[in-house]
Each structure stands twice: as C-alpha cells, then as structure tokens.
Amino acid sequence: MLTMRPLLKKLPPSIAALLLQSAAVVLMLLTVNVTGRYDSPLLFALLCGLLAATFSFFAGLAKWWLVIQLMFAPALVLMLAVELPPTLFLGAFLLLLLVYWSTFRTQVPLYLSSNKVWHALEHLLPVAKADSGFTFIDLGSGLGGVLTHLASIRPDGRYIGVEAAPLPFFWSWLRIRLGSHRNCRVQWGSLWDCDLSQYDVVFAYLSPVPMEKLWHKACAEMRPGTIFISSTFTVLDQAHHETVQVDDLHHSTLFIWHM
C-alpha cells in the first residue's frame, strides 16, 4: 500500500477511495472463498469497511475519508435490509448531485460562510468614494449569502458570484432576484474561467486543495492595490498581510493579501 501511495495521491480522493473500497471487497471475497466461512452480510460489510479504512489511512487520505470508508459498506447493507423504495435512493442521489456537482473533481465542497464572516467582510471593503464604486467577486458563492448581505450594506459596490453547482446557483439567483439586489448577480461556471483583473476585492471560501493554484491565478491577474481574501484556508509558504479572527462557530479566520 505504501508503494502505491504516490500513485493514489495523483488521483482525486473520491476515485482513490473507490479503488481502496473495491480492493477491500475483493480481498474479503477471496478470504471467504479460501476459508469457506461466511457468517452474515453485516459482519462481511463491517470487515470490508475496516479494511477500506485501514487502506485509506496508509494511503494518506484525509481523516473524514477514513470514517466514510469504514461506514460505507455497513450502511449499504443496513439500508438494503430496511427495503426502502429505490426511488428514494435515486432522489437522494440526484439531490446530492445538484448540490455537490463537480466536488469529486474540484475537491471543493459546499461551505457556507457564517453571518459573522459577512459582517467582518464589511470592514474590509474599499472606502466609499462619491465619484466611484468598487467590484467584489465571491469565487464559489454557494447560496449567495455573502453577496446579498454586502450588496445591502454597501450599495456603492458591484457584487458578482461564481458558482458551479446547479442547486446553489439557482438558490442564489432566486435570492438575488427576490431581494431586488440590482448591484448583485451570480453566474454559473468555473472560477478558473474568471478574469480577476476586473475586481477590486476577490473573496474565496474553498478548501486547502485549490489554494496554491488560485494564488498563482490571483498573482497573475489581480491589479496592484486590490485585495485577495480567503476564509479559513491560507496559501502555504505565502505570508499574509493581515488576518481577521471571527468569533463564530468554526472560529473562522480571514487571510488577507494586498496585491
């Protein structure tokens, strides 16, 4: 397993987890075939989960993947035992697909900023000027909470959100329309297609995985004097100019770079 670790690291964690889970099932099937012993589906599933979690630990997957790997097979057996309608599983799958969409590829799940983060961002916006406004973009804008809050508090700005998942995009679009935020809009697409040179403030609440790539994009595109803000996730080996500690449930930190 240790010899395969570099190869698994090159794969998206979801694909690596699937391969390790499959390896655990195959190994258990071979064990049953050799020993001829099979006590119950649940015990088989528990042993598969234990093996998959062990493989994932040595493969270097994140801690939450260990829990998923451990519980996946037992949960599947228990759900089949309950005999729920197949349409329920299809509905749950479609809902998760609409919410998380390309998370398996981008490794950026749906994180929602707290109200206290919204209020902290108010104080990081450019000083109001009578003759001009400013532009703000939220990369991965989720349900649009940051956008609509700031658009209400600082109407002198223009606020743009970018969201790749269909359901959060639709939710935020509806939120903006119903709230009549004329200085605010959201677009469906990839944050990597955005030209950051158009914005005075760039805000992101993503995950540790894309931060280095995003930093290089910000350095290449953002204009001098603009601000790059990341919630919770910093850029390794890149000293930030300021931090704002937010007293919310997650003890969020805003990392600030003056470009």
In DSSP terms, counting alpha (H) and pi (I) runs of 4 or more, how many helices?
10
* Low-confidence runs: none
On the 0 to 100 scale, the average pLDDT is 85
Helix % is 40-55%
Proportion of strand residues: 5-15%
Structural class: alpha/beta
The helix/strand order is HHHHHHHEHEHEEHEEE
Largest β-sheet summary: 7 strands, mixed
Largest sheet: spatial strand order: 3-2-1-4-5-7-6
- Kindly, what is the distance between the CA atoms of the first and last residues, rounded to a whole number of angstroms? 43 Å
Radius of gyration: 23 Å
What would you call the shape? elongated
What's the β-strand tally?
7
Describe the structure.
The chain has helices spanning 5-9, 13-35, 41-59, 63-82, 86-100, 103-106, 115-122, 145-153, 166-178, 211-221; strands at residues 134-139, 157-163, 184-188, 201-204, 227-231, 242-245, 253-258. It is α/β, with parallel strands linked by helices and 259 residues long. Strand 1, helix 8 and strand 2 (157-163) form a beta-alpha-beta unit. Helix 2 (13-35) crosses helix 3 and helix 7 (115-122) packs across helix 8. The longest helix has 23 residues, at 13-35.
Structure keywords:
alpha/beta; elongated; 7 strands; 259 residues; seven-stranded mixed β-sheet
